[in-house]
Amino acid sequence: MSAPDSAIGAPAKSIATVDIGEQARLAARRRERLMSIGSPLGLLLAWELAAQTGFIDVRFFPAPSTIIVALWRMLMSGELIEHILISLQRISLGFLLGGIPAILIGIAMGISRPVHALIDPLITATFPIPKSAILPFILLIFGLGELSKVVMVAIGVFFPIAINTTAGVLQIPPIYRDVGRSFNASHWDTFRTIALPGALPFIMTGIKLGAGLALILIAVAEMVGAKSGIGYMIWSAWETFAVARMYVGLFVIALIGFGVSFLLREIERWVIPWKTDN
Asked: Which pLDDT score, from 0 to 100, does residue 17 have?
């Protein structure tokens, strides 16, 4: 092959290589999605077979088909939708109450060393305390109404968001802050153009962790002193030994967790387009 021919052929070969690599990545992603769907379906199928063949005690582990029937009946009666909406409302309010201050405090800790020195010991000392252990104090202070459930969620989501936000700000290369100072950037400009965008990947990680904790804590809070919500539904089913209804509550929590995780991933792709690990 002559020199001009080789010069013409090289780009075509590189383009073909890129196309093959992209196709391989797309095929790998499709396989991963199929595996993500197949693994829970396989577990449910194995569970169904074990229940139908008597391998497990259906009094404690009812077949998935029985649980689906109970779920459908609760959906048709409107009872399940009511419990779900009430729990989601409490989680949303708790996220706003705990998440917004967590982001602001986390960014302030990352930007200002005095603020970090002042607040970090308090977060470090209180974070290991099990959040379910402080439920009696929350009920004592805020009573048995809605506020105690919202506060429980807010406390749970505050810590992972604040800690991850601080870590996100601290990992920003110092050169960006130096550039801001050289242009006499105000504290608000530093917050808006450097700290917040640079910490966004870590903030989203904290929000994802907070979402999981919120589902756990709202179920715990609703089991005590509540007359509605998914946690109350599970607890009342336990009191009457309605095992299928208990599993409906657990399945619903799992489905909500999956849906929230999917939604947060889509939001992350939108607000952090430069993040390549999605």
From this structure: 54
| Cβ 131 vs Cβ 189: under 8 Å | no
Distances (CA, A) of 18 to 14, 28, 138, 172, 181: 6, 15, 57, 32, 42
For residue 172, is it left (φ>0), alpha (ψ between -120 and 50) or beta? beta
Question: CA 81 → CA 73, 236, 255, distances in Å?
Answer: 11, 16, 13
Report the pLDDT value the prediction gives residue 92, as an integer from 0 to 100.
93
The answer on pLDDT for 194 being more than 80 is no
Both structure tokens of 63: 């077949």
Is 222 exposed, middle or buried (CB count within 10 Å of its CB: 0-12, 13-18, 19+)?
A: buried
Q: From residue 104, give the alpha-carbon distance in Å to each of 121, 195, 198, 213, 256.
A: 17, 10, 14, 20, 27
Question: What is the DSSP-derived secondary structure letter of residue 145?
Answer: S
Query: What percent of the chain has a predicted confidence (pLDDT) above 90?
Result: 31
Could you tell me which residue, 236 or 188, shows the higher pLDDT? Answer: 236
What is the rounded CA–CA span in Å between residue 209 and residue 222? 20
For the stretch 139-187, pLDDT in tens is: 888 887 889 899 999 999 999 999 999 998 888 887 777 677 777 767 7
Measured between alpha carbons, how far is 85 from 90 in angstroms, rounded to an integer? 9
- What mean pLDDT is reported for the chain? 83
**Contact yes or no for 264/87 (Cβ under 8 A):** no
Percent helix, strand and coil across the chain, each to the nearest 5:
85, 0, 15
